[in-house]
Amino acid sequence: MLTVYFRFYGSLNDFLPEALRHRLIAQKLREHAAVKHPIEALGAPHPEVEAIWVNRRPVDFTYRLQDGDCVEVYPWEAIHALSDYMPLRPPVPQPARFIVDAHLGQLAAYLRMFGFDTLYRNDFNDCELAQISAQEHRILLTRDRGLLKRRIVVFGYCVRDVEPRRQLVSVLQRYRLGGCVHPWQRCTHCNGLLRPVEKRAVLDRLEPKTKLYYDEFQQCETCGQLYWQGSHFERMASFVETVMQQL
């Protein structure tokens, strides 16, 4: 058996039992275990880990532990302070695309509102979510830590906040997407792209007051949903501005 010491930094402590947070953790391990397994066994899903140092040197998830090793595990927000680190995965593909689990439907709608390609269905099972994330190089957003620990998941984030607007801000901050926001380009219902449509082409679908007061419309090219800058638009635009100020 080996004795190995672990220390988790920053937001990775969210995944640990309270008694183990912000302290050195001694673990008894079988010989030659790869570092990835005990990190996840202690609670941190591998997509949340951005850098690993062993004995003050950067390593990747395949590093085989030795007796007495001191393992430091860093989240995304801490790597700027490291003198060196070994990337644990490829860069997030750009533009960033997401797949969202069934419990985050409002977050999915907000991401679409902000212009991000976001898959969401309330009947996706965990296997489908993981497979689609891996096959399409989408960032998996979930509150399920076990789902993020699936081996095939490369890009993923555990959403800690409960309130959807705070969830949105945390995701945009995590992936530094402030400069990638393009509101009003996607359908919040189905994720399809919006295209301008002539008023006369949709006149039969409009309510009398909408016909009277509005002339510019967009339509989802996938589901046909109509959008216009109605009485609700000012409130939505204010929401977008408030979020952008936090990025």
Please name the defining characteristics of this protein.
247 residues, alpha/beta, Ubiquitin-like (UB roll), 2 domains, five-stranded mixed β-sheet, four-stranded parallel β-sheet, 12 strands, 19% strand, Ub_Mut7C, Twitching motility protein PilT, Mut7-C_RNAse_dom, Mopterin_synth/thiamin_S_b
**What is the chain-wise order of helices and strands?**
EEHEEEEHEHEHEHEHHEEH
- Overall mean pLDDT score? 96
Look at the helices and sheets and give the structural class: alpha/beta
Terminal residue distance: 46 Å
Characterize the biggest β-sheet.
5 strands, mixed
**Low-confidence blocks of residues:** none
* Gyration radius over CA: 22 Å
The count of DSSP E runs of length 2 or more, i.e. the number of strands, is 12
Strand order of the largest sheet: 2-1-5-3-4
| Number of continuous helical runs | 8
Q: What amount of the residues lies in strands?
A: 15-25%
Principal-axes shape call:
elongated
Number of domains: 2
Range of helix content: 25-40%
Kindly report the oligomeric state of this protein. Answer: single chain
InterPro entries: Mopterin_synth/thiamin_S_b, Mut7-C_RNAse_dom, Ub_Mut7C
Pfam families: Mut7-C, Ub-Mut7C
Domain Mut7-C RNAse: 97-239
Organism: Caldilinea aerophila
